[in-house]
Amino acid sequence: MVPDVQGSADYREPFAGDAPGVEFDAPTEHEVRSASVSPEQHGERLDKLLVTLAGEFSRSHLQHLIDRGHVQLDGVTIASASRRVRAGQVVRIELVPTEESLAFRPQPMALVRLYEDEHLLVLDKPAGLVVHPAAGHWSGTLLNGLLAHHALAATLPRAGIVHRLDKDTSGVMMVGKTLPAVTALVRDIAARRVHRRYLALADGEPAQREFTIEAPIGRDPAVRVRMAVVMGARPARTDVRCLATAGGISALSCTLHSGRTHQIRVHLAWRGLPLVGDALYGGRPQLGMARQALHATELRLQHPISGVALAFNCAPPADFAAAWAQVAGATTG
């Protein structure tokens, strides 16, 4: 029999940490440097002068520190990088680390664990949590939380993250805790031996109750922040089942056979069924959803070390559950 873990109170244990949010406050103590402006430096721009004082930082980062109020002349905070300095003035700079330098630091956070052993961690990821650091999200990510959670994470590729959910997608995801586990999970995903099913609310009604979308996905050549169906790109397949419709909205069950970036969002939008609340792909905010209406509800896999079959079902969070109920009631199968 396949163990079916429902995410009950017995399993929903938080990481050690403070509040269950994902925000992180960087350390408040930073190196401070100061120097007097020499006669040769008289009349220079402030940002150019700072390069001689803190040359290991880029000029753009030093300008950023000026903008954030971390630079003073004669004890007065200066907000203009183009300010001309005078000989004899004392410049003081607080060397706050770059945001990128926080990307791989341990940051304790409270997250829900559905299952955990020596090799495998299965999580219920909340909407709003970024999985991996990237531009604009250099801290407070799941990766940071994993580094704080167990020591081996620092030795693993991407701290053991083998697949991702978008920031605003909620639900179940797995993480490897040892290198053999990570290797096995990556292999099983590539071989399509991992079953992943999602619930989605789409704007529109499909012509068929069950259908398959098989179309290659790549970077959108016109809008670089989006993905798109692009001929010649990487193949992708999504099986879709319509569970209910109401008011022009469809409650869908989507099963992945590949794991391309934004796959369900792209495939459904390409078929004229953009996700409710998914502004990037043309979805309108409806049913009280302030994010894309997508939830990873089911994960089935073989344990990466023991080979034991595991199954996890993850209930949607309150916002998605309320929106789903307006279309499909309690139906999630």
β content, as a range? 25-35%
String of helices and strands: EEEHHEEEEEHEHEEEEEEHEEH
The profile of the biggest β sheet is: 11 strands, mixed
Secondary structure: number of strands? 17
For the termini, the CA-CA separation is: 20 Å
Q: What level of helicity do the residues show?
A: 10-25%
- The Rg value, from CA coordinates, equals 24 Å
- Count helical runs: 6
SSE class? alpha+beta
Average pLDDT value?
88
Instruction: Enumerate the spans where pLDDT stays under 50 for 5 or more consecutive residues.
Output: 1-28
Overall geometry: elongated
Short description:
This protein has 333 residues and is of the alpha+beta class. The protein has six helices and 17 strands.
Task: Describe what you observe in this structure.
By secondary structure, this protein is α+β, with helices and mostly antiparallel strands. 17% of the residues lie in helices and 27% in strands. It has six helices and 17 strands. It has helices at 46-53, 59-67, 142-149, 179-190, 263-270, 318-328; strands at residues 4-5, 13-14, 31-36, 71-73, 76-77, 90-95, 112-116, 120-125, 170-176, 195-203, 210-214, 217-219, 227-229, 237-246, 249-256, 294-302, 309-313. Strands 1, 2, 7, 8, 9, 10, 11, 14, 15, 16 and 17 form an eleven-stranded mixed sheet that branches. Strands 3-6-4-5 form a four-stranded antiparallel sheet, with no helix packed on it. A hairpin with a 7-residue loop joins strand 12 (217-219) and strand 13 (227-229). The longest helix is centred in the middle third of the chain and has 12 residues, at 179-190.
